[in-house]
Amino acid sequence: MYNLHCTKKLLDRLKRPIAAPTETDIRLGNWYATVLFWKPQMVLVVNERTLLPVLLPLAPAATLVERFPQAVGEALLALDVPEAVIAEELQAMGYGSVCKTVNRSLIGMLNEFSFLAESYRHHFGTSEPIAVMKKLVITPCRPIGYLSPREALERVLRER
After folding, report:
1. pTM, 2 dp
2. Tens digit of pLDDT for each residue in 73-128?
3. Residues 103/90, Cβ–Cβ less than 8 Å
4. Residue 100 domain boundaries
């Protein structure tokens, strides 16, 4: 089980019950999400432990929580994570709950990645989620000791 901590902008679009965050024992932990007002609208989701960014279409908003693990799997596959590790993580993510944001540092990273994603979209002329993610994933980030999300992901995956 994972918690999807959503910004108010995204919560207004999801129209789902808001749950209290629960403990999770999955390797990557919880996720923070916001909406990007592109055409079509996208959701930017950032991992709490690694700051790994994942982008996926918002529509249909009612199924976002159910579609999100598949987007994580595609992002991990694009980063050459072994398929066995991906399968284990997706199995552990089985069910997600929607929660309010509680970590201000992660909200700051959502804002920073939103700005960078918009810049990459215009500069490289693509809204393709994996292409934008591959640009964001090499960004050094202060909350994780100036590692990039890719380096933080590799470190977390080596822990077990």
Report:
1. 0.95
2. 999 999 999 999 999 999 999 889 999 999 999 999 999 999 999 999 999 888 89
3. no
4. 2-159
